[in-house]
Design a protein that fits this description.
The chain is of the alpha+beta class and 226 residues long. The chain has helices spanning 2-21, 169-225, and strands spanning 33-37, 44-46, 51-58, 73-80, 105-111, 119-124, 132-141, 147-152, 163-166. One of its GO terms (molecular function) is nitrate transmembrane transporter activity.
């Protein structure tokens, strides 16, 4: 009986603690937002150069009643497609949005606009966006900044309307050159320091020997004179 009560108490505690430690599950969110991005499927964009035009609003094709009274903020994010998540656990998809690593890059965060008004935003792709295949997702947040709805440019399996972002090869080459130069400078600096330190120690030893020899000679002269 005591064991049964203990197990029941543990289960109850776990059910209460779960929402505190975990986050909102994507699978529980209604897809009440419609999101569109300007890149064509398969288009290749350059980080730090190209722009993406984004549009979002209520999903007019949502099968059900949309109650957006709780919507206060819309957060739009850039997300990795499955092809760019393979063998990369740091980009893994998890249903719990606190643990999910699919959408790591914030694009824009704006107050939610009611009355079915469509919002538009032009985003210059940031320089530090890694080369990968992406889609765009938007979350509707409530007053406590919890996700209560979402929408994305791809389908459920994230296999359509994908685009690629590539790092600028010229900038990458320049960055590699600068990094190589800095590394070489550090190595040369360490070598020069070691050489100068050895010379300093050698001079110190020679000076110490000369002083010792001078002291010995002086002592010998004094003894002879006596």
């Amino acid at each position: 009986m005591a064991t049964h009560l203990l197990i029941t108490a543990l289960l109850l505690f776990s059910s209460l603690l779960g929402p505190v430690l975990g986050g909102v599950l994507l699978s529980t969110l209604p897809q009440t937002l419609s999101v569109q991005a300007s890149p064509r499927p398969g288009e290749i964009l350059k980080a730090g150069e190209d722009k993406i035009t984004l549009r979002w609003g209520l999903n007019q094709n949502f099968q059900g009643i949309i109650t957006d009274d709780a919507y206060k903020i819309v957060k739009v994010k850039l997300c990795f497609a499955p092809i760019s998540q393979q063998d990369r656990p740091w980009r893994r998809t998890v249903d719990d949005l606190i643990k999910d690593k699919t959408c790591q890059f914030d694009i824009v965060c704006r107050p939610y606009s009611k009355n079915n008004k469509e919002e538009t935003f032009k985003w210059i792709i940031e320089k530090d966006i890694p080369t990968a295949t992406y889609f765009v997702r938007a979350y509707a947040l409530n007053s406590t900044e919890k996700e209560v709805g979402f929408g994305q440019t791809s389908n459920e399996h994230k296999t359509i309307n994908l685009f690629e972002i590539q790092v600028n090869s010229v900038r990458l080459a320049l960055a590699n050159i600068v990094a190589a130069c800095m590394t070489a400078f550090c190595v040369v600096s360490v070598c020069v320091f070691c050489i100068l330190e050895k010379r300093r120690l050698r001079r110190a030893r020679l000076l110490q020997r000369n002083e010792s020899s001078s002291s010995t000679t002086t002592a010998s002269t004094s003894t002879t004179s006596t």
